[in-house]
Write a structure and sequence with these properties.
By secondary structure, the protein is an alpha/beta fold. 38% of the residues lie in helices and 16% in strands. The strands form four sheets. Strands 3-2-4-5-7-6 form a six-stranded parallel β-sheet, sandwiched between helices. A six-stranded parallel β-sheet has the order 11-10-9-12-13-14, sandwiched between helices.
């Protein structure tokens, strides 16, 4: 036995075994909020500090969002560590993001001593029950000898089939226990490839089509080679290409075949054209609620032929019955598709140009009231940002502006939470900048989302990375206010916000802060922010009346009023009330005044 082999089986405490297991799985970064429940693992990570960068965060959800962004950029499982009880509860937000985004993630959670189980010990939680619906697999390690085995399996599960999060609870005393076991590295597993007759069947269906439409989905599962191959195949056959919700980084938005995104806030023309398609190619995407426009895009029985390509057979046909399901790694499918002879003179070239023209038309900046035309400002901004910029986005109405008016190009990345988690954008930007410090990282976030995790800017300063944060401030929870105005027009309840001066917020950390109120101010402000070399925040003060990029508050109220008018007219006339006694009438008038909505 070699010296290296002998060293591997020397007794090691569980904390050291856990750290070594992360090294064995190829982990390069760990994002954490420290806790006493995993002191021994922290000590183990100190021993491998030349192999793994430990990133200290300020909030557990922020730590998991950073790990999730790291996974999207690298394709490898992101790793986060949090403490028991409250720490695990905070982290659950990020686990849900990873689950719905199909992002490989391993979350380690400190646990109580296992001999205290079921006594409702301090911060005790049964993580199998807590995370069961949110993760692909949940386990707990109580025996140090099993650390290499269970950690290796955790990474396997996170990356296999449909990628996703795995939660591993690590009991406190187990981390002190000595065990003599060897480390276990990653398994060499070939990804699933298309069945031999899959591509010929697909090409035969494509040849008969008149109005095909491809939609690309999936996040961390795509490699640069795979994205290049699928682009070549789609463009080579002149197929119109859309992306699913917040997957703008999968296809060049400047390409003549790009026709937009099928997600929340999708262009109505694209949605209508998708319903007209006679062959729908769902490549790497689940047919979930956003892409299907609330499950209204097609009938579930398969009236529109759907070809679904996905690495997990359980997801194919889960909602919509496909005409052809192809179980395959998306990159393997893309490479195989590129090798197929392209169709000669496709009959749908006019259809592709029609869809592209609709995308170009809806990306033109309208005239908006006020000194800031955000559409124009964003389009001017994209011209000056580097060709390999990483964009991250939070959730909210503001996010539809860059989605509609900007064009994510070939070498850029776009990271966003498909489950709509507010508070994602800032930590994702920091995680992205730590992962790729040489690239410019720009975060889009609303005033509501920023104050959920904006304190993670301290992590950027601590680890000497400088993302650029654009805070869109309209002094409200905009998406909820939009729905409120549609349903209860003029009755503003719970959606107004009071904000700080965001530029001063980052200046208090020692960063670069600016305020933008006019169209022509955004580009110079971002240029100065980048040149500062510091973490930077540009507060973009938007018009609260312009609630979406397609409607104002007044327009939504008018639409709601018009919709309510026919219903009101159909109501039978109320019976004439009897005259009230003077005291009763006075009480009724007082009640009416107190119930009247206040004007803003």
């Amino acid at each position: 036995m070699s010296e290296a082999k002998r060293a591997q089986v020397q007794p090691r405490p569980g904390g050291k075994l856990l750290a070594d297991a992360l090294v064995a799985q190829g982990c390069s970064h760990v994002f954490c909020v420290p806790g006493e429940s995993y002191l021994d693992l922290l000590d183990g990570l100190y021993a491998v500090r030349n192999r793994i960068q430990l990133v200290t965060c300020r909030f557990e959800a922020g730590a998991v969002h950073m790990a999730e962004a790291h996974a999207k950029l690298t394709g490898k499982p992101g790793v986060a560590i949090v403490t028991r009880g409250p720490g695990a509860c905070h982290a659950a937000i990020g686990v849900h993001v990873a689950f719905q985004d199909s992002t490989p993630l391993v979350l380690l959670v400190g646990q109580i001593p296992f001999e205290e189980t079921d006594r409702e010990s301090f911060q005790e939680v049964d993580y199998r029950k807590m995370f069961g619906p949110l993760a692909k697999w949940v386990t707990q390690i109580d025996d140090a000898k099993r650390i290499p085995e269970l950690m290796a399996h955790a990474f396997d599960v996170a990356t296999s089939g449909r990628p996703g999060p795995v939660v591993v609870a690590i009991s406190e005393e187990m981390q002190k226990e000595l065990a003599s076991v060897p480390d276990i590295g990653p398994a060499h597993v070939l990804p699933p490839h298309p069945a031999p007759d899959a591509l010929p069947q697909l090409m035969a269906m494509l040849e008969k089509a008149k109005r095909p439409l491809a939609v690309l989905g999936g996040g961390a599962c795509w490699t640069a080679e795979g994205r290049g191959a699928i682009r070549d195949w789609l463009v080579g056959n002149d197929i119109p290409v859309a992306v699913s919700f917040r997957r703008q980084g999968l296809f060049d938005g400047t390409n003549a075949n790009f026709v937009g995104d099928l997600g929340v806030g999708a262009d109505a023309t694209l949605v209508a054209k998708a319903k007209e398609s006679d062959l729908f190619l769902a490549i790497g995407t689940r047919m979930g609620e956003p892409i299907s426009q609330g499950y209204t895009l097609f009938d579930m029985a398969g009236g529109t032929p759907i070809v679904q390509v996905y690495p997990d057979q359980a997801e194919i046909g889960r909602v919509y019955r496909p005409a052809l399901g192809i179980v395959s790694d998306v990159n393997a499918f893309a490479l195989a598709a590129r090798n197929m002879e392209p169709l000669r003179r496709p009959s749908w070239s006019g259809w592709t140009r029609e869809l592209r023209a609709a995308r170009v038309a809806q990306a033109k900046a309208p005239q908006y009231d006020g000194p800031l035309n955000l559409a124009v400002a964003l389009q001017e901004l994209e011209k000056v940002l580097p060709a390999d910029t990483i964009y991250t986005t939070d959730a909210g109405n503001f996010a539809t502006w860059p989605t509609r008016f900007m064009h994510v190009s070939e070498k850029q990345d776009f990271l966003g939470p498909t489950n709509g988690a507010m508070g994602y954008g800032v930590p994702a930007a920091i995680g992205a900048k730590i992962t790729s410090p040489e690239r410019t990282v720009v975060c889009f976030v609303g005033d509501g989302g920023f104050l959920m995790t904006g304190q993670e800017l301290a992590t950027a300063f601590h680890h000497s990375v400088a993302p650029i944060i654009l805070v869109f401030n309209n002094q409200m929870y905009g998406t909820i206010r939009m729905h409120q105005e549609k349903t209860y027009p003029g009755r503003v309840s719970g959606t107004a916000l009071t904000n700080p001066d965001f530029s001063k917020f980052i200046e208090a950390y020692g960063g670069h802060g600016e305020v933008v109120e006019k169209t022509e101010e955004l580009v110079p402000a971002v240029k100065r922010a980048i040149a500062s070399g510091k973490p930077a925040l540009v507060e973009v003060r938007t018009n609260p009346e312009q609630i979406t990029n397609r409607a104002t508050v007044a327009q939504l109220r008018a639409q709601a009023g018009a919709a309510a008018a026919p219903a009101a007219a159909a109501e039978p006339a109320p019976k004439k009330a009897k005259a009230k006694e003077p005291a009763q009438a006075a009480r009724a008038a007082t009640s009416s005044r107190s119930a009247a909505p206040r004007k803003r």
